[in-house]
Amino acid sequence: MAQFVLHKGNTRGHANHGWLNAHHTFSFANYHDPERMHFGVLRVLNDDSIDGGMGFGTHPHDNMEIITIPLEGALAHKDSLGTSSVIQHGDIQVMSAGTGVQHSEFNANADQVVKLLQIWLFPNKKNVTPRYGQITLDIAKRHNNFQQILSPEPDDAGVWIHQNAWFSLGTFDENFETDYQIKKQGNGVYAFVIKGSVTIDGHELSTRDGLGVWDTDKISLKFNTPDTEVLLMDVPMEL
Known about the structure:
By secondary structure, this protein is mainly beta. It has no helices and 22 strands. The two termini are about 20 Å apart. Pfam families: Pirin (PF02678), Pirin_C_2 (PF17954). InterPro entries: Pirin (IPR012093), Pirin_N_dom (IPR003829), Quercetinase_C (IPR041602), RmlC-like_jellyroll (IPR014710), RmlC_Cupin_sf (IPR011051).
């Protein structure tokens, strides 16, 4: 029988640093809840707004798969691998931190906020050679469809990571219904509502709510409002 965990948007950890307004679905920085440490290998789901010209100075990571999904504005990235890039809505960025990498992230614009999701997954291989990846996707292909944006395979759609995980993004019309088949036995799926309202297996979710589902091979979704946008993260449940 399917198991569920529901995280309402207003129950997330919250830190407002003035230049940074951050919401944490799982324990992060000064927010700690022993009941919300991770969902399978999904360790961090941060929903950040960064003021114009501000950002995170150079800092280290290791042995983590880090995915950044810009929702609004543009984010400038530099790292110790020699990468210097800007990502914006429609782009997906990934870093395999592996043996260690340092990077900085700043709002690329002085006059507008950048909004983004930053997601960390535990890798299935430790101490890999650090790497950076970035792609631009056709957002139009997400209309009433879950567009794959991440997978374990370099030759598959989207970016790839060192983990048996698949991410998909879609934007759906009101009353549209669909099923999502979980990609690998033993995986669960964590659904995060970027905007709008959706009912997943009888659970009604609104903007910035999250629902984790496991011990099943599919989920059923019905979209309750126009232009409902949902991110699905299909991840191994065992660390």
